[in-house]
Amino acid sequence: MKSGTALQAKLIMKLGKSLPPSAIISLGKFVWTTMWQVMMSQMAPRDRKGSYLRPASQFRDTISPESDHPYPPESGRYHLYVGLGCPWAHRTLVVRTLKGLEEAIGVTVVAPSATAGGWIFESEHQGCKTLRDLYTLAKSGYQGRATVPVLWDQKTKTIVNNESAEIIVILNSQFNEFAQHPELDLYPESQSSDIETWNEKIYPAINNGVYRCGFAQTQIAYDEACGQLFTALDEIDAALATHRYLCGDHVTLADVRLFTTLYRFDTVYYGLFKCNRRRIKDYQYLGAYLRDLYQLPGVAETCNVEAVKRDYYGMLFPLNPGAIIPAGPDLEDLRVPHGRESVSQTPSAV
After folding, report:
1. Could you give the 3-state DSSP secondary structure of residue 318?
2. Three-class SS of residue 152?
């Protein structure tokens, strides 16, 4: 028995033989637009004006050394599930590397599957074949989104947290006794106010802003998101003229949160998500800043441009129906000396 989609396609082809070219174009546009709207509504929830609305993460617990806390810090107990193409999951890999937590916290990579409609394991983990199975194992009857990253407790077989912004704070502070670089504090209390001020600007306009551009379902929604995105990038570029990093002379979580979006920008967001006013490499300071972060010890090893292109161009069918993956760009320029050492080392005023 033929599927509904196959029958529709056969009907359209039959009609096409008897319709004039203008009618064929109009019919094709109507059918594709209708299907696109249905697919986008499933992939990217929207508000009334067509702006993308990102659903909130559902698992928001933490890890603490307090005696009565259910999730104390332990080496080998917790595990990260990540997708290499995902910028949110990439944050956790960067912090894990910078802190030197590779021996304390294991990682399993999942891959997106168009047929499964979500993330899948290469081989079974915890008796699960898909990430959704893992979510269901953690919470019976779970109906929300099954997203990466996941901070998993192997002892109680549950998800501690699936919000990347919170996981990186946990990794920065709660495993220092097991870290190779416990002296590195990416969220120092003295700079917490500046870090959060930057985060409040970067998340809606840039981290989520590129998605608001790519997933916009009306011109008005796109124009608003694109304007906010490049206004924020211009502001950061100006700030980086006198500060090596966002909050002064040391890398913080604000830089980590920005980095994983900037790394994907010229490769994916510039073209596929229509963020094409200018590339990051074209900015006077942002381009060098991206190279500076990329060249930090271990960070380049967390980056996988082929996975990024595969996951975006190959899996986001409504944005790229042919699933054709572009050959470029060449990211070797990320290894070019950045020269950011010469920038004034004073705390930033946001």
Report:
1. coil
2. strand
Percentage of the residues of the chain whose pLDDT score is greater than 90: 77
Q: What is the pLDDT of residue 32?
A: 53
Please check if 163 is assigned to a binding site: yes
Please tell me whether 147 is known to bind a ligand.
yes
pLDDT value, residue 7? 65
The CA-CA-CA angle for residues 227, 230, 236, to 5°, reads 140
Q: Is the pLDDT of residue 350 over 60?
A: no
Which residues, in sequence order, are bridge partners of residue 79? Answer: 106, 152
Enumerate long-range contacts of 337-340, CB under 8 Å, 24 or more apart.
337/291, 338/288, 338/289, 338/291, 338/292, 338/295, 339/288, 340/244, 340/288, 340/289, 340/291, 340/292
**CA distances to 26, 30, 37, 304, 347 from 33, in Å:** 10, 5, 6, 33, 50
Which domains does the chain show, CATH number per domain? 78-178 (3.40.30.10), 189-342 (1.20.1050.10)
Mean pLDDT of 173-191: 98
Instruction: Please check the confidence at residue 147 and state whether its pLDDT lies above 60.
Output: yes
DSSP single-letter state for residue 196: H
Question: Is residue 164 a known part of a binding site?
Answer: yes
* pLDDT classification of 12: cutoffs 50, 70, 90: low
Q: Which helix (H) or strand (E) holds 209?
A: helix 209-214
Annotated catalytic residues are 86, 211
